[in-house]
Design brief:
about 300 residues; Jelly Rolls; binds ligand 6CS; binds fe (iii) ion
Length: about 300
Amino acid sequence: MHTAQDLYPSRVGQQEKIINRKDPVVYGDQQSESPWSLSPSQLKQFDEDGFLVLPNYLPSLVDSIKNEAQVLKKKLAGRDERVLEPDSGELRSLFALHRHSEFLADVSRDARILTPVEQILASQAYVMQSRLNIKPAFKGKSFAWHSDFETWHVEDGMPRMRAVTAWIMLTENTPYNGPLYVVPGSHKKFVSCEGTTAQDNHKTSLRQQKAGVPKPESLEAMLDDKGIQGIYGPPGTLVLHECNILHGSPDNLSPWPRSIAMFVYNSVKNKVQEPFGGIKPRPEYLSDPDMTPLKKSTKLI
Ligand code: 6CS
Ligand code: FE
């Protein structure tokens, strides 16, 4: 049984409601000498919008990440880390990049990424989850509107909103190839969703999420208020994405894949507990129990 107070109850059989965020967004605003620190205006933008786009930030890593992804696809053949598209059976996502590839573990520690992440979190961090989202041409299916934090809280036991996702565009992200839609400012609200969570929900939710998806009434309230913004950019663009921002993406109807590599950084001060949804913890490839703080690396620079 869970003993910690649940500040963000969701899928615990109650009526759906929208509540206020109870945690800071930017935990510290320290400026360091580092060339990769965010400026005060970038921190302010992240605080207000819940995301920040750094166009063409890591172009030199793109080809190496793509090559490594090909190796990992083979290495992980037949394993649960590979998640398939709902209809076509094409590869949709590949999880635990940092656990199966030294190179991608190096990318996760890259000072160009970890400096702004630690700045926002005002602490050291570890990679709780990493994945490749492939969004294959024509066959890549949508992701329903959701907050990542909602899932990590209910299914993984992440207690507070103190995590940031950094994702790197591996192909151009355009309005046509199933881009990410975000709701700017939505990270300051929390949709406490209806329903409950089935054991092993993750076996279906990664192909098509149903639990933890707000009802149309809640979505209308959030989207009408704050609007929708698509995130576009050339390969090598880095996006910093607050853990509770409402987001989703449409099907890819184009002949161009929309592939990204994504690393979820949880603060070491935000130790995961038992899942708040009363289910057993998800497998390690979805929520890494190794909370050893990452050391920034300049190896790839
Ligand atoms: O399950 C997860 O951890 C992530 N994946 C999906 C499809 N939704 C919630 C969260 O972003
Ligand atoms: Fe998500």
